[in-house]
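Hi P.,

Sorry for the delay on this. The queue was packed all week, but I finally got your sequence through. Input first:
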Amino acid sequence: MASEGFEVLDMLHRVERGDDVSIMSTRSPIRVNGKRLKTTRATPRVREHTAAIRAEFKV
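Then the structure:
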């Protein structure tokens, strides 16, 4: 991660959750129309949306 090539790829970014947790993470290398998707939003916590999904799909 300390190599020049890794820095050129801009693979690290900081993401945050709604509970004020900030995490340094690797960025997705996937490009859409030549552009990388960027976000500061972290992935949801385990079971964070379970109730809403169950309600939506009536399961």
